[in-house]
User: Fold these one by one.
Assistant:
Number 1:
Amino acid sequence: MRKYFGRKLFTYTLTFFIAATIDWLIPRFMPGDPVAGLMARQGALSPEGAAALSKYYNELFGLNRPLWEQFFGFWTALIQGDLGRSVFGHGRPVAETIMSALPYTLALLIPAILLSWWAGNTFGAMAARRKWLDSAVLPVGYILTATPYMWLGLVLAFVLAFLLRIFPLSGGYGFNLEPSLTWAFFVDLVAHWILPFLSLFLVGFGGWAIGMRNMIIYELESDYSRYLEALGAPQSLVRKYAFRNAMLPQVTGLALQLGVIVAGSLVTEIVFSYPGIGLLLFNAIKSEDYFLLQGIFIFVIAGVLIANFLVDIAYVIVDPRTRVGMRGGTA
Amino acid sequence: MTGLANTEPKLESPVGAPAAVATVAASRKGRGEFLYFALRSKKFLFAMGILLVLIAIAVLGPMIDGTDPVATDLLPMQPPSTDPGYWLGTTSFGEDVFAQFANGLRATFFVGLLGGGLAALIGMAVGFTAGYRGGWTDEILNMLTNVVLVIPSLAVLIVISSYLKARGVLFEAVFIGATSWPWAARAIRAQTFSLRSRDFIDLAKLSGRKGWRIIVEEIAPNMSSYLFMTFILLFGGAILIAASLDFIGLGPTGGMSLGLMMFNAVTYGAALLLGYWWWFIPPGLGIMATVGALYVMNVGLDEIFNPKLRDI
């Protein structure tokens, strides 16, 4: 087990190092000069003014120092939690700007991931090899999982918010309210949360239901299931064993899908102008706020890595082989 | 998006060697058999039908309609009607939504084919090498796969794209292909691993053939159905990633795509606030139909290739 976690932690540390290095490399080695881009926004300048400003920017970002020194400085700042300042956030530190948006994204993501996984697996397992239920779950599942997140969001917003006016169309809470610890604000918060949550939940649900259905069918075809059946075991017992075995790839699948779900929440937030990381990212791109953009990248990577590690812990709990040191959950 | 990695097809584990030894003979007979079952698989035919209709729109649409998708010379804000040029209505700027849809569908298929194809190639190269060689090569490639696997590809694409002022569809497809291969590599590695120790591979080794020839001539043909299905899932996945990237506003500049249509509708047209459903419903529906048909085709193929799953 120690080996299992050691391996995982090593991979994640390496991944974070590589991802952060990419984050550092991109602005320095992409075609085009970021300083020139910043200067272009200042409008007309005299030649001396331009030279002075260019020097100022180069010194500000440390671009005139040797590369290894820049790289070292980047890591020192990163470890201290300093991600620079946000242009979009009027000079607020990037880390602070992201932290204020983080609760909204987590409030969407965590329930959406857990509930869609649970509901999808339950429904998928029920549907497998049961004619009428299967013929309903299968097409619905495929339609949902093939739906782009933002489009499902758009359709839900159009039908439930624009046409039927049941839910608010956009924002994290009403424009007439101030964030406070009152009942009215909480109700409003939930009303704004439901549609973006539903978009994420439904797409995920489709994928898990189909995955589980297919896994169960494979398990029911396997030798141990046939043996149990031949012994005259009740169908419910065979299914119970099939479900337990089918569970393992679904846990691994959860880790694989994390990046996709996070990406889904980014675009869903844009549809609903929901004030989380996704909307922040959208604004960072629009206002060419590169510090903010790169800070969000670091946050997203770190978040996905932490979530992956949590899934690994869950895997140890459901797969006993990893605990006794056999090759169960390597990969 | 990363292609339903958990629903990925399982290679039917053949019982012992006889199945493998008979491969050459079976593959000739098998082709006819697959066609026989393909033409009787409702899922496969249904998916194929949808894909053919969509391909027809993508190929013929721009020829029949002929309108420039970004020309603004039509009456703005028109809902769909039977008038020529207004089949799917117009945008707030007087652009033809049908022309945008047909051209966008082209870009979608292009990104899917190229991005998915590239991802399949990289996945195969890494998966075969790691699975066949084993040892240190496997350790290193496996580590690389795991690293790329956990980094969300969309996040990397966003950071790279935001620094590029001019972006093409080709660039988009290549970058999607370069980041979305890991789960395929992992799956192919596992399959190669299980084939590697079979007798017929040992026999091929004894005959003195080079490693890559054994991979191409012996291992790959034995899992060709699996490889094809992996490509289909990567195809669908690439389309969904491209749609997200376009929707964030980092899609191809100076072109048309289905994701870009939704981006324009929401960001510049306020289509949601004004209720111009014909502007944002068709592009998403097009993506959903394409990707959904690919996934259903995948299940259909699974049933065709794997006798255990056939209920025909």
Number 2:
Amino acid sequence: MFLEDLFLLGVRVVKDQEVKILSNIQVSERYWHMVVDASGLASDVEPGQFFYIDCGQENESFLRRPFSVYRINQDDQTLEFLYLTKGLGTQALTKLKQGETVRSFGPLGQGFSLQEDAQKILLLARGVGIATLAALAQEASKKGVQCAAILSARSHNDLLAAEMLQGFGAEVHKVTEEDGTSDVENVRDIIEDITARHNIDAAYTCGSRRLSRLLQDITSKKDIPAEIALEEHMGCAMGVCYACVCDVVEDDEIRTVRVCLEGPVFPLQKVMMQP
Amino acid sequence: MSTLEQKSANQGCHLRVNIGGLELKNPIMPASGAFGESMEKVLDFNHLGAVLPKSITKYPRKGNDTPRVCEVPAGMINSIGIQSKGLQYYLKNIVPYYQQYDTPLIASISADSVEEFVEMADILGNNPGVDALELNISCPNLKGDGLAFGMDADVTYELTKKVRGITDVPLFNKLTPNVTRIQDIALASEEGGADALTVVNTFLAMSINVHTWKPELGNVMGGISGPGVKPIIVRMIYQVYQASKLPIIGCGGVMNGEDAIEMMLAGASAVQVGTASFIKPAAMLDVLEEIKSYMQQYGINDIYDIIGKVHFNQYEEG
């Protein structure tokens, strides 16, 4: 089955609704953390899926912004987002306060697949991509799957999810520019070391083309199934405008598929990485 | 009778419009490129006046390089480049898919030559699942410098006349705003045999990131849409309404019911909603409800009492 046929399977209602903000606070120099009430959502949320959020910026910036979920808390029916303040949209989002509502469309897209019989998985995340993989680490922990995670960022300040991942019992390796440890070759050594010590059933990545190419290389040689969550500028987030596309190879043919609908999670080996 | 018709009948609102021979239960339809099957998750297509899937090309097209969209104050610029799976896929999958809905299907055609327009119009216009054709003679994202067939009155006339000769299905020409006098293209379309005019496609635009010194779009230029361009569209609808007898489908920057009413006052018989669906996925249904509320508020029973009814004595009456 081709990626483009996927959406035909999971037809369901996706709601665009106001959700209540339970908290929205700055957690480091560049990162914010928002918790929303998810009790009114029409369907379950999977790690890797995203919400298309109206950041409330009026006309100054116009489009919504996609945010992948950081934590899915079924017990208290809340969702958490960890976001990097980058431009007009995310800056406007920081202005929203506890008790206010935010218009949110989702959950959208295809999430990560985590095989039931998986024993140990590898996560390779860079920057805000850590937030996307954190949701998967949470899911893995719930299913008793062990995680080894390599988290890459500019500075220690940006390695926010590390503690949470360690809380889930993950083996966490941190690399940063600050420490001069984030170069690709060093990350390659760490992955080689992990795969030498453990039998890795699947690998996942988000946040860096450079690291994704590295993981593509290693997992194809070692025949480890791998997935990537992609980011792209979006228009509609529901598969009609064809703004957020990427090239994948299927049946030896290059296809241009939609990140919002066929993704944002794709089999890593299929994605053509631009240099 | 659908729920919607029942509701509007109960309320005494007559929303039915005739666009060049195509009967619509209400005047709201999507703009090409801002609508597709996957929107079935967020709205019931039976409630729309018409469905209008993305422009189809004869052969599959890859589309343009990313980034394909960038936002600007009160709008966005896109340069998708009509990513398309080709006519065969469209005939096999898209046309049959929309048969499940009690809503007419307008097929938007894009082509590289007059001959290709004629060939595609022949196939699609004579397909029983297609209720009307919209000729996209105005996409700014296919050729260098945004050139389009609809920039030249003579080419527009020739193209329309040839397509008219091959099919009897209602024919809507989608005009480009990137011309000096849009009335000339409207009249060329009318003389060529078009049944209605979609006013208009996007404005050729460009945005540069001042931090990277690079164009914001992979294709450098694109088409701007959104509420920022709406006053220009209203002006163009008004100008075309004065010049041509053809019904007009207004398109560009409609975000709510009042925007649609404004276009209808200027002369539009129907209105397309595009960019608004990106901000609010179910925007088309909201626009429709707001039109109904407006009509109730002002005691207007028939939508035709609005179309082209802008008047100019507001200062005299104070």
